[in-house]
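Appendix C reproduces, verbatim, an entry submitted by the partner laboratory led by Prof. M.T., so that reviewers can inspect both the input and the predicted structure.
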Amino acid sequence: MSRTPLAAVIARHSARVLALPGVVGIGEGADAAGPCVGVLLASDDPDLAASLPVTLDGYPVRVRVTGRLTAGPDRHEP
């Protein structure tokens, strides 16, 4: 049985996860066990972290507190 690609799992669940107040990002990650779904939080909120799923379509969910994210200047030189 083949596993759904991680990018497809994130695409399927991102709108629902990003709609949670305090979630500022979702993306592909990896830990010692292999690929995972990374969920980025604006602050260390134990209630929010506890409300997130432990897995999404078989991939573990890993939470990281990053603070609020803002776009920075484009660093590419012409």
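Residues 5 and 57 are 10 Å apart (CA to CA). Additional entries are available on request from the coordinating office.
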